[in-house]
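Sample 1 of the test manifest.
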Amino acid sequence: MKTIAEAAPLVETKFITLFDDAHPLQLECGEKLSPVTVAYETYGTLNKEGTNAILICHALTANAHAAGINSPDDETPGWWDGLIGEQRAFDTDKYFVICPNILGSCYGTTGPSSINPRTGEPYRLTFPQFTIRDIVAVQKKLLDKLGVKRLATVCGSSLGGMQALEWPIMYPDFCETIIPISTAAKQSAWCIGLNAAARAAIMSDPVWNDGNYAEQPMNGLAVARMVGMLSYRSAEELEQRFGRRRQDPNRDAYAPENPFQVESYLHYQGRKLGKRFDANTYIYLSRATDSHDVTRDRAPLPEVLGSIKARMLCIGVSSDIRYPAKEQKEIVHFCPKARYAEINSIHGHDAFLIEFEQFNAIIKEFMARKSRS
Amino acid sequence: MKTIAEAAPLVETKFITLFDDAHPLQLECGEKLSPVTVAYETYGTLNKEGTNAILICHALTANAHAAGINSPDDETPGWWDGLIGEQRAFDTDKYFVICPNILGSCYGTTGPSSINPRTGEPYRLTFPQFTIRDIVAVQKKLLDKLGVKRLATVCGSSLGGMQALEWPIMYPDFCETIIPISTAAKQSAWCIGLNAAARAAIMSDPVWNDGNYAEQPMNGLAVARMVGMLSYRSAEELEQRFGRRRQDPNRDAYAPENPFQVESYLHYQGRKLGKRFDANTYIYLSRATDSHDVTRDRAPLPEVLGSIKARMLCIGVSSDIRYPAKEQKEIVHFCPKARYAEINSIHGHDAFLIEFEQFNAIIKEFMARKSRS
């Protein structure tokens, strides 16, 4: 029997409109954008001083629903419910936790699938190409509106980790600490390549129609996701989980209609994303990820990372092939106030959605030291 | 000025028809196939005893043209010209080197793109799904016809290495030695997944039309190749070679029409394969690769590998992510007569097409010991 204490709290996704034509969002590419609606959720209570806030930054295909449940009829908890809540890593008894859907996404925040108020049509490919820094600038505006004066920490994995890393560089006095996970100082050529293959798959789907689709290009999105999954999971995990087992091990091993279980799994994950995500959004967000480079228009890497004043806990995963541990170690190498911690896991890049016990332990310890200091 | 000695020798691709309706090729899946035409090249001279032959097995998208040039007008040497020739690893002064195009390929040997003599139409998806063992069985028939009594060695990388590994298991007294490179005892779940994504890309291309295309599904083939390339090359190599450089570094860094160099490279490689390869063939050959498992219908791995009588040089590449070195070490672990050698290279799985100096040195030494023994 579930007690009140155990039940995930009911939370509402809120919406706020930021920027207007008089004060538009100035993007890095030179274009301006207004208005910008942001979907976000909050957990816990902001203190009077506005200094107990934690910002959670999500990855490529996630949303603002990081914790709790959105409806009594849907018991699916938020994507980081394991880390956000009473007594968890991001303790809602002490902290005011905010998770905004990022700029350019398709879960309530303005992006390529949103209606352009000037035309009454979706932006589609007329949406300006934004960057990680633009995503962070929108988050800052949201925090200002919510009365947040200082962030106790900023945490995210993957694309979320890129945001966490940009925060103390863009707003040096605003972040007490940051916790970038499974991310890099710059997007690597291999990751750009993976994203290029995913984009090519979407753009090759004739349903995509140069971005002007009536329905989602499901096949293209599915192949994009399959390519992604093969870098989100480790070879070891796929081997242990599926090995060479066929869908029906008792049937003819050579029949294409009896695929390997790993094939079925990837096709299933592909279709699942196709049903819940927007193709143009995938293209824009993956390009924003590719744009990530903390040195761009700044200074060499040692100087940029060395200038970070926020204390940092940088977390890597032993089996991550997309953002291998050496990339997080490189960040720590150049940051005098950074500490590296490694999650021991076969789940690869996706470990941040699975290894809650290890993440809770490591982050709790860091947050406790932070409180004492 | 090129001297006669330096010029690559002119070689002719030959064709032979094997199997007939009275004696068809009996495939592992239970189906029969006849006739089977095989395209092949030979270099050097077979001795009277028929015992100085070397079989070269090619990988997924290669062909019978392994060495020399096919025409005075086309100076492109064969794909392994660096290793085959006078004084090279596979020394044509001493050995009779044979490279057949494998069963199911699209470069002269019977495959899905060949005309089915019973219908006058290409086989397309009516072609039976063959396996590595079927490929080897066709090679054996060819060698019998050519008068080869014993193989001094069988060598191949990747899918070619799978053939090399099956040879001494299927024909224990026929191979004196084998040299499998960058391969595995069983195709891993991760590799099956990569192939599944590649097949999904081809099959998602509407031009593919359930295999009944009038022209090649170029977009699908291109995405398949992009996915492949990201596992054939190492992240380190892509980083060194392309890094984060844009096609035009002086133009707006955010414009999608100014892609990263690594994106352009992958798109180029994709188009290049689309122009030279057949889509159904890609599907069949990748499925044959996925079928690879030396234990299938035999015995546990230690027993199957332990039974190999041929001496073995098993070669891995330090940066191969598709068939990591540990998979070759596993083969050697269970083979009493096997030795492991590693190529130190950043070129990953494709190193066998690049690191000729290292391969020549390692293989020459092994072949010299072989001669002395």
